């Protein structure tokens, strides 16, 4: 059995207090972190790599147009990375998927980061498209799937319900804390989540033990971390 921590965090484009953000990312103590609103466009990779290095992590997958990425701790071995845009909806922001197939303690795992749209029709389409893609990437490695993201909707809404029907909503399975993630200063909604394949045991899922001042200053979302156990 292998235990690991997988987190998800919307960085708001590093427009806030970056030193506070680094402290929160470090406090997550995660083996893998799915990022949304990571640095984008020109120089995105170098900026993501610099941020990762400040937290003792490394960039293992990313999509520079959509601002999604996956960071990994030193003990995580990278096997494959694949990223790309999801279907483009006219008039809406480009959305993408970053997938890293990794090995932790001898066990394979496919970890994907996604940031769904504000438009409900696009959200549901992209949720299904993301699941199909990450499963395709994971299949050659026999890797179970973990998906982390900013879903831009609550658990009772269609895209969230779709993902929770395909994977386990980790917070619902083993909640720690109130689970609210938005806004960071006045949390009132759970719109960020980690979802794991049914064969993965969820030991706990919730917020991060970091100073409230850092959580409020780092970005407008709160991070989520799931403590998981893999068979193998």
UniProtKB/TrEMBL annotation:
It comes from the Bacteria. The keyword Metal-binding applies. InterPro entries: Endo/exonu/phosph_ase_sf, Endo/exonuclease/phosphatase, TDP2-like. Its cofactor is Mn(2+); Mg(2+). Gene3D superfamilies: Endonuclease/exonuclease/phosphatase. The keyword Magnesium applies. Keywords: DNA damage, DNA repair, Endonuclease, Hydrolase, Magnesium, Metal-binding, Nuclease. This is Endonuclease/exonuclease/phosphatase family protein. It comes from Nonomuraea corallina. The lineage of its organism: Bacteria, Bacillati, Actinomycetota, Actinomycetes, Streptosporangiales.
């Amino acid at each position: 059995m292998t235990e690991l921590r997988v987190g998800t965090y919307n960085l708001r484009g590093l427009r806030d207090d970056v030193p506070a953000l680094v402290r929160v990312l470090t406090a997550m103590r995660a083996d893998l972190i799915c990022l949304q609103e990571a640095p984008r466009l020109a120089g995105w990779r170098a900026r993501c790599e610099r941020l990762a290095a400040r937290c003792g992590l490394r960039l293992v997958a990313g999509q520079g147009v959509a601002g999604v990425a996956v960071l990994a701790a030193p003990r995580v071995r990278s096997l494959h990375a694949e990223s790309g845009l999801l279907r483009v909806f006219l008039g809406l922001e480009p959305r993408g998927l970053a997938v890293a197939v990794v090995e932790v303690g001898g066990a394979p795992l496919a970890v994907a980061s996604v940031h769904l749209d504000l438009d409900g029709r696009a959200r549901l389409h992209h949720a299904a498209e993301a699941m199909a893609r990450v499963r395709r990437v994971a299949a050659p490695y026999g890797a179970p799937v973990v998906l982390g993201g900013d879903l831009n909707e609550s658990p009772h809404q269609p895209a969230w319900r779709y993902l929770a029907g395909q994977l386990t909503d980790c917070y619902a399975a083993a909640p720690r804390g109130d689970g609210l993630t938005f806004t960071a200063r006045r949390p009132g909604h759970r719109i960020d989540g980690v979802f794991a394949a049914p064969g993965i045991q969820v030991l706990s899922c919730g917020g991060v033990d970091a100073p409230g001042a850092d959580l409020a200053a780092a970005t407008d979302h709160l991070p989520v971390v799931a403590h998981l156990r893999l068979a193998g």
